[in-house]
Amino acid sequence: MAVSYTGVVTVTGEGRNGGRVESGDGQLRTTLAIPKEFGGAGGATNPEQLFAAGWGACFLGAVRRAAAQRRITLKSTAVTVEATLTHGDDGEFGLSAVLNLELGGVDQPTAAALGHAAHQLCPYSKATRGNIPVTINATAVAA
């Protein structure tokens, strides 16, 4: 398999608890914090937000690709990704995700079909398939 692009990010310090994140090209520089909802100080981003951002951006690209393959013109696109850090009764941590897709300029069946198609195309969806619970909610909206 040919490599098209490799994103390089270095995380230093305490990781999710006050660590720093920096991309190799310097475009991403931020600190990390445990969310207040999880008993941390908050005030900075966290791995779940970064994962959700990456998946959301990738997923919308896959939606656009699926629409182009079907010669469908979309008037608007948005996705809200909920990446949830779970903590089971066994003490183990895990992830789950809900992707709430909103597409303008199509009817509800087409929105659902594009959401399903994008989930087959998106590299993040492929990487998580069968590994974490994922729900795709696709909704047609007025453009």
Structure report:
The relative contact order is 0.14. The chain is α+β, with helices and mostly antiparallel strands and 143 residues long. Helix 1 packs across helix 2 (108-121). It has helices at residues 47-69, 108-121, 123-128; strands spanning 9-12, 20-23, 29-31, 76-87, 93-104, 134-141. The radius of gyration is 17 Å and the shape is globular.
Secondary structure topology:
Elements: E1 9-12, E2 20-23, E3 29-31, H1 47-69, E4 76-87, E5 93-104, H2 108-121, H3 123-128, E6 134-141
Parallel strand pairs: 5-6
Antiparallel strand pairs: 1-2, 2-3, 4-5
Helix pairs in contact: 1-2
Structural class: alpha+beta
Looking at the structure, what is the overall shape?
A: globular
How helical, in percent, are the residues? Answer: 25-40%
Q: Summarize the main sheet.
A: 3 strands, antiparallel
Oligomeric form: single chain
Q: Secondary-structure element sequence? A: EEEHEEHHE
Query: What would the average pLDDT be, to the nearest integer?
Result: 95
Strand order, largest beta sheet: 1-2-3
